[in-house]
Amino acid sequence: MKVVVIGGTGLIGSQVVARLGEHGHEPVPASPNTGVNTVTGEGLAEVLRGASVVVDVSNSPSFADDAVKEFFRVSTSNLLKAEAEAGVAHHVALSVVGTDRLQASGYFQAKQAQEDTIKDSGIPYSIVHATQFFEFAKTLADSATEGDTVSVAPIKIQPIFSGDVAAAVGRTAVGSPVNGMVEVAGPDVFQMEDFIRKGLAVREDTRTVVTDPNGLYWGIALQESDLLPGAGARIAETRFDEWAAGQR
């Protein structure tokens, strides 16, 4: 089947495209650098012609509250309208475990609005909720660094390898719409301090990592388990230490 992957040249999208191709499907990566822009609508009608499924793994170029809300509002609305006109039978979107619990953040407000728009569109859909990726430990550290110290919130995290996220998105795309949410997570639960420390060690980054009882996650206060998936989550196989060994 023809599967259009919005954000198909990024970290997750490129892996989704590769996996779908390996399984005999016709994946089409779509992003501004391939001439498809969901914000302006450029190239949408053309790329969706004949598509059975659309996978949206795109992200906002800016995480400022107003900009990210506008990005997801406009891009999602444009995409769903074009899908309806093209007769697309399944819309798959990648989102984040705990989105509904993180609504003090403008970014997660935008993601929740995106999900609500998808649910209300009338197009059969599946939303894949993933935990944080192994690859983003440094990004998390950078957001919480002052001087040479990384002060992180006293919360738990169950991170996942990006390749396992791509596999879950690909499986969902070629399956029947669930008209609901699928959660995926890595096999191990860490304290945030331990995950960040391990992630920095992979990069030989010597910053000191500590838990701050008043620490925030992207600027918001969380309960200890807010980033963890529910009991029915699909658990991926790749462990952090296995992934880390391949990075050295």
From TrEMBL:
<dbReference type="InterPro" id="IPR051207">
    <property type="entry name" value="ComplexI_NDUFA9_subunit"/>
</dbReference>
<protein>
    <submittedName>
        <fullName>SDR family oxidoreductase</fullName>
    </submittedName>
</protein>
<dbReference type="InterPro" id="IPR036291">
    <property type="entry name" value="NAD(P)-bd_dom_sf"/>
</dbReference>
<dbReference type="InterPro" id="IPR016040">
    <property type="entry name" value="NAD(P)-bd_dom"/>
</dbReference>
<dbReference type="Pfam" id="PF13460">
    <property type="entry name" value="NAD_binding_10"/>
</dbReference>
<feature type="domain" description="NAD(P)-binding">
    <location>
        <begin position="7"/>
        <end position="150"/>
    </location>
</feature>
